[in-house]
Amino acid sequence: MEIKKTPFQFLFANTIRALFRQSAKEFEKQDVKITPEQHFLLRILTSKEESIQSDLAEIMQKDKSAIMRHIDQLEKLNYVVRVNDSIDRRKKHIVITELGTETLNKCEQILNHLSEKNTENISEEEMDTFKKVLIKLKENAER
């Protein structure tokens, strides 16, 4: 298939899937017990003071049951804990543990290495242009 005639959504989706597969393989190879999506969830937890399941589902654009499965898995690994809300007992905040933070840091190192490897033959100028185009595509898609 000729690149100019290939819809960018197809190229972009295939690229994202390839990067996720690469990350998952490297996580497994380095004995990291989580998926790239669960890594993203841990990353969100470190950037927010309080996180409840519905907020996480909205941020990750996933349904609440999918997020709950990820949280259950992360809780089994002792990477997160559920903490009761002091005002509303029905709410549970998801909090990253010290072990979760260590795993997140390991994932970040792995992803930084992969990022360096994957951008090896791409100039800084090309990356800046690519990022600007991605931002514009996102903005256009959200209009």
UniProtKB/TrEMBL annotation:
<feature type="domain" description="HTH marR-type">
    <location>
        <begin position="1"/>
        <end position="139"/>
    </location>
</feature>
<dbReference type="Pfam" id="PF01047">
    <property type="entry name" value="MarR"/>
</dbReference>
<dbReference type="InterPro" id="IPR036390">
    <property type="entry name" value="WH_DNA-bd_sf"/>
</dbReference>
<dbReference type="InterPro" id="IPR039422">
    <property type="entry name" value="MarR/SlyA-like"/>
</dbReference>
<protein>
    <submittedName>
        <fullName>MarR family transcriptional regulator</fullName>
    </submittedName>
</protein>
<dbReference type="InterPro" id="IPR000835">
    <property type="entry name" value="HTH_MarR-typ"/>
</dbReference>
<dbReference type="InterPro" id="IPR036388">
    <property type="entry name" value="WH-like_DNA-bd_sf"/>
</dbReference>
